[in-house]
Amino acid sequence: MTKPVPRLELRRLTRRLPSGGRELTILDSVDLAIDPGECVAILGPSGSGKSTMLALMAGLDRPSAGEVLIDGAPIQDLSEDALALLRRRTIGFVFQSYQLLGNLTALENVMLPVELSGSGDPRGRAASLLAEVGLSERGHHYPAQLSGGEQQRVALARAFAIGPPLLLADEPTGNLDSATGGRVLDTLMALRERHGTTLVMVTHDPAIAARTGRQVHLKDGRIDRITAGSPA
Amino acid sequence: MRLGAFAAYARREARGALGRMVFFAACLSVGVAAIVAVAGLSQGLRDGIQGEARSLLAADLVVSGSRPIPPALDALVAGVPGLRRADLREMATMAAAEGKGDAPGRSLLVQLKVVDGAYPFYGRLELDPPRPLAELLAADAAVVGPELAARLELSAGDTVLIGGQRFRVAGIVRSEPDRAAAGFAIGPRVFLDGAGLARAGLDARGSRIEHKALFALPGDGGDASEALAARIRAELPDATWYDVDTWREGQPALREGLKRAERFLGLIALLSLLVGGIGVAQASRAWIAGRLDAIAVLRALGVRPREVFALYVAEAALLGLAGSAVGAALGIGLSALAPLLLKDLLPAVPVRFFSPVAALRGIALGTVVAAAFSIPSLAAAWRVPPVRVLRRDAEPLAAPWAVRLGLGAVVLAGVFAAAWVQAGELLAAAGFTAGIAVAVAALAGGAWAVARTVGRGPRGAAPVWVRHGLAALARPGAATIGAIVALGLGVTVVLATQIVQARLAGQLGADVPTRAPSAFVVDIQPDQWDALRAQLEAEGAEGIDSAPVVVGRLAAIDGRPTAEAADPKTRPEDWEDGRRRWALTREQRITYRAELPEGNELVEGTLWSDPAHPELSIEEDFARQLGVTVGSSLTLDIQGVVLEFRVTSLRRVEWRTFGINFFLLAEPGSLDDAPQFRLATLRLPAERELAVQDRLAAAFPNVTLINLRQVLDRVSAVIARIGQAVRFLGLFTVVAGVLILAGAIGAGAARRGREVAVLKTLGMTRAGVAAVFSLEYALVGLVAGLVGSVGAAVLAWAVLTRGMEIPWRWPWGTLVAGAVLATLLSVLAGLAASRGALARAPVEVLRSEL
What we know:
heterodimer, A: 232 residues, alpha/beta, Rossmann fold, four-stranded antiparallel β-sheet, 7 helices, 10 strands, 28% strand, globular, B: 850 residues, alpha+beta, 4 domains, six-stranded mixed barrel, six-stranded mixed beta barrel, 21 strands
């Protein structure tokens, strides 16, 4: 049996930013491979390079050196347009601050990626996903009319709307109290399970990280250690 | 991105942004309304003129000239089957009521129209009583205009004196079809027939008569009259001296005048649209600034940069379309009001105010301006980094300088394209664009300099509200520069028009030199002069001057017949050509005298220096139009006698003295025996003018007295009307400017709310806060007013001194009033826009910050 092509692979990934006249190395020659269906947490203190790593994985930012491969194909040299199309088809996002569009209803927020991908029946797809996250009744509400937990669940529905092979989550419960955060995390894990999605989640909370299969600990832009735990 | 998804998102994007959208659209509506009003009115007038072309000519074809219609024309048209003809002669003369006892009756300068034949062939001549003109007129009967009847207190059956002869008033003329096209009228109408004119004795030499032959061709669809016109132009001897007009050409001179007016007013209207463009740019910038997060999310979800950009541009274009459509509707309404505003200026033709072409033009221009002014702001959407979803502080990347240059070019191209559409002329469009660029640069520079000076100046000793107000003006990103530019442009247009018009009116009226004559007397026969002079002196007239006038025509220049030089087929829209043809074919009036008249200065050659030839001295501009100079020879046909003259000097004439001046001055002795009449100028005390005029009309009925003051009053009234129209359009620019000022203030409402809260928390009263704000808005208005006033002064100076050669005088009153009004307007608009912020309770604002 041959080893499958990793869903996501980082090769000597480096990101430097100019800061006060000199270069600051945020991410320093990181190597990492994540297999299809795997669930990985990125841990580390503030400034360790977690969010930068996530941005590079999604093609939201460009590496200073090294490579990002999705399904074996390097993405760091793709044009802005090609990256956009890649995200449209392949990558889902969950953000700490939800990032719902304020002038769209919950339902429309979920419909948006489906509409962008051009696949059929955005409304039906969005409605069934809202049902999956338990918000069937709130589809016509605007984000401002929803609680933080509800907003994040809408964001989850949006992230899974196109059934992306890869989901990137940035502190998905960071803005929520622990009880609400726990329920959102349950929903996320359930969705991931059901859709067979590869999940990369940035967090600083070891308890949350413990629910993933592998924990990558970052420190000063380098991988400090990798621990394994049982997936939820 | 599929079109459906695109449209769906674009629709949702509009939610919760009603205020912004209304502002964006309103900025455009104001300017588009002005543009559509101008274009709609002129289109309506053009259509009206075209539709009424036969009525405006009262015929299918008209041959006209200042010389009698030659018998050769009879032969030329003899073969045309079914042709009908009527002959008109028009001239200015005096009409008077009968005297009572020794006292002469009242008199008035009138426009005489002498009709032989079935005038008019087309259109309605409305008479009271409603009977055909030919039935009312007789050798001893006249039909008069209502103004004359009113001034001389005449009614039907009364007697009016014309040329000293008694005519029975047989009717009143309410309207005549071809008067609409005639433009400026020197006095009310009087109709006579040929026998009546002969009896009045006014067809004698000297009177300036316009001769017209009107033709109706049975079943003329246009081709027949044009073919006939072409034949007349080609075969009529001396065709150069006549104008041949057909109805299908539809009043080319009138339409040309209309086109010029439309071009000028259209550009002024465009200015208000461009000022609206500044508002559009501001609104777009605020819009994008508030959407950076959403754009980053879209980008993270896989929307391509160009799709994001297209989304916002489409949104802006749609808003532009909507705002323009509203503006177009307003403009159509406005153009329906125009006849009330402009009633003496417009030809009296039926006008249909809804012109789809005008509305479409307005909507297209509005949309172009919306795009051109919003694209530079919206282009930031292209450069929003998607990583902003993770890092809130990731701002749009700075545009490379090439892109910035490109975006600037988009705005300039938009302005230029719009100006081209409005002016219909490349050069005018380029000039307009350059002028706008300079004006905007000056206004922005002025605004920047003031903000900087205020920001740096000492204000330690000032009361707290003054300090705060000054600081607010100088605050970075206060968005006041745009508002100042917008308001300043409006002030410039309105004030410049006001200054030019006031100065023109002043120049025509009060500024006439005190030694200038108040009246001209024309058509004095040589044997009447001594008696007339004696009477004028007895009446207390001062500064009496007179000159003999010989009337002739220019037959050849340097041996080349004038008819060759003046091609009758010159295009009426070519001004230079038209001037030249006019100069060559006009009825030349020549005087003769030994010395240079007062107010004349030789610029070339020497007066009466060639003993071998009869000599002429020519006014320099006229010489240029004729294309002659010192040494040229001019052949003049003085009523059949051909004389050759040598040009030996050129003169510059100070026309503003209103003295007797001639383009052509002949050497004494050369014309002494030619048929001639005398022209006199004199000065009368204003209060005695009418009485003297009445007595003169009674004693010398063939003589016409032209009261300069009355003529100038009429000209001033027309100029005032034009000025009103221009200022009215200019007001749209001011409205747009105020709107933008209010928009800029409204956009900062949240920040203002916090400011109010903080100031109130610190113990400032509501009135105190209002004072702080008022001072800030007052400063904005004052800067706009001052810079705009300076701009207006420069513009007016250029127009007056360069365009019209009227000496410059600083219109301090107008400039100060303009600046003060701009200040007041700004304070009112500002306080209205920050009403909400002022009313908020401090705790409410601070809580919402948590």
